[in-house]
């Protein structure tokens, strides 16, 4: 048993007796955090720092799976939530804040003319798919990216246990930045496609007017275009990726940073499409829960009125530039690269390495040095230049060790735990 993570490992053993995998989220489990070199329970967070149950402090670059844009325990969000809490959390009828927040989202997001709230990104994507099928009276869905746990999507991945085969067959994927792959799928499912759903950006930027071509091809085939901006919304720009790339979809799904960590998602879109929600069943007891709505309103106001995204972008551009320089310094160009938007960038291990082994070693070294990271840099407003410099300092140490292990062909000897399990490829 690890002394550094003694309490975490003790709690994990106890939790596994009552909770599958010992946690509520696959990405937070021991399948993704290597046992013996990882914490499993976080006790508190402030700014960009979190503390595990053993008292170890980390600079957090996971940012709760990109759900935190401002930082933990943001005083303005806390103030808004506490104020609302004193008036109540949920009621037998709608609360006025639902309309206030809907107007704010419509003000910021180009595609938004009407808004309907959910609690998770999967709620929003599943609702958007049902809406598209109802509107077009067609069944097939073409997707690119990760879109949650619901049957319509997860049935098309390797994690499809429990999804009826008939449902699995209604969803198919295409390749990002490859418009011909989408054309081929439209040919395969001629006149049967209800919607194309895509993360407008993830690991790479769109090139050769890819998003514009996706929109044109989708509309040519009388399908709806859905942007899944669960992560990119209110992160890449105030109006999301659709504002950044000037491509407006028919429907948008939002989540993650919409409420700086409070459980909230939304389907937004043009009125003529959103009206269909009155005819499908997209309804939750907690859909109008007011604490998350209050947190969201305070979050969006802060993003509008303070240099939140500007600060994140400056730090992110610096981070990407410096990582590239370190990769060059240690002649690791054949083994890794860095990509993505400054607010959500990725350290990519290339197939020239054993990726699971390398990522396990990476996480081992990062967490031992007080960095919580899964390989992406989900930056927050509360990350300072010093936090970025500290990360870079630990990256240099890791790159040096990795280079030596590659040269001596003995990476396995440096790994102090079992390897993390491969996750189905989502991007």
Describe the protein's architecture and organization.
It is a single chain. With 427 residues, the protein is an alpha/beta fold. The chain has 2 domains: 162 residues, Aspartate Aminotransferase, domain 1, CATH 3.90.1150.10; 231 residues, Type I PLP-dependent aspartate aminotransferase-like (Major domain) (Aspartate Aminotransferase, domain 2). It is built from 15 helices and 14 strands. The longest helix is centred in the C-terminal third of the chain and has 24 residues. The chain is globular and about 60 Å long.
What descriptive keywords fit this protein?
427 residues; alpha/beta; Aspartate Aminotransferase, domain 1; Aspartate Aminotransferase, domain 2; seven-stranded mixed beta sheet; 15 helices; 39% helix
How is this fold's topology laid out?
Layout: H1 6-16, E1 42-46, E2 49-52, E3 57-60, H2 63-66, H3 75-85, H4 97-108, E4 114-118, H5 121-136, E5 140-144, H6 151-154, H7 165-168, E6 171-173, H8 179-188, E7 193-198, H9 210-220, E8 224-229, H10 241-245, E9 251-254, E10 265-269, H11 271-274, H12 290-305, H13 308-329, E11 336-341, E12 344-349, H14 355-368, E13 371-372, E14 376-378, H15 385-408
Helix pairs in contact: 3-12, 4-12, 13-15, 14-15
Short recap of the structure:
The protein has 15 helices and 14 strands.
């Amino acid at each position: 048993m690890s002394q550094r993570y003694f309490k975490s490992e003790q709690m994990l053993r106890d939790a596994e007796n009552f909770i599958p995998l010992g946690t509520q989220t696959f990405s937070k489990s021991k399948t993704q955090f290597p046992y013996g070199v990882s914490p499993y329970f976080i006790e508190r967070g402030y700014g960009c720092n979190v503390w595990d149950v053993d008292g170890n402090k980390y600079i957090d670059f996971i940012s709760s799976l990109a759900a935190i844009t401002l930082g933990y325990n943001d005083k303005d969000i806390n103030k808004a939530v506490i104020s609302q809490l004193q008036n109540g959390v949920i009621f037998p009828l709608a609360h006025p804040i639902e309309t206030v927040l809907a107007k704010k989202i419509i003000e910021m997001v180009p595609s938004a003319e009407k808004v309907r709230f959910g609690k998770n990104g999967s709620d929003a994507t599943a609702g958007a798919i049902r809406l598209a099928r109802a509107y077009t009276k067609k069944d097939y869905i073409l997707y690119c990216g990760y879109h949650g746990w619901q049957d319509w999507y997860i049935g098309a991945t390797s994690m499809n246990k429990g999804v009826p085969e008939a449902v699995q067959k209604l969803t198919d994927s295409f390749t990002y930045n490859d418009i011909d792959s989408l054309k081929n799928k439209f040919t395969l499912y001629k006149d049967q496609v209800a919607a194309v759903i895509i993360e407008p950006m993830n690991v790479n930027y769109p090139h050769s007017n890819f998003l514009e071509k996706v929109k044109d091809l989708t509309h040519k085939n009388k399908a709806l275009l859905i942007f899944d901006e669960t992560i990119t919304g209110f992160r890449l720009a105030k109006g999301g990726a659709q504002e950044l790339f000037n491509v407006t979809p028919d429907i948008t799904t939002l989540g993650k940073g919409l409420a700086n960590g409070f459980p909230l998602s939304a389907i937004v879109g043009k009125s003529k499409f959103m009206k269909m929600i009155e005819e499908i069943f997209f309804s939750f007891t907690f859909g109008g829960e007011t604490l998350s709505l209050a947190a969201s309103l305070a979050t969006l106001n802060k993003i509008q009125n303070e240099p939140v995204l500007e600060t994140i972008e400056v730090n992110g551009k610096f981070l990407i530039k410096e990582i590239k320089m370190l990769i060059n310094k240690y002649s690791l160009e054949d083994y890794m690269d860095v990509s993505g938007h400054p607010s959500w960038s990725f350290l990519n291990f290339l197939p020239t390495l054993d990726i699971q082994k390398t990522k396990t070693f990476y996480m081992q070294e990062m967490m031992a040095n007080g960095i919580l990271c899964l390989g992406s840099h989900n930056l927050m407003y509360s990350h300072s230049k010093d936090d970025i410099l500290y990360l870079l300092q630990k990256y240099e140490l890791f790159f040096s060790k990795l280079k030596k292990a590659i040269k001596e062909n003995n990476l396995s000897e440096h790994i102090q735990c079992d390897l993390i399990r491969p996750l189905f490829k989502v991007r």
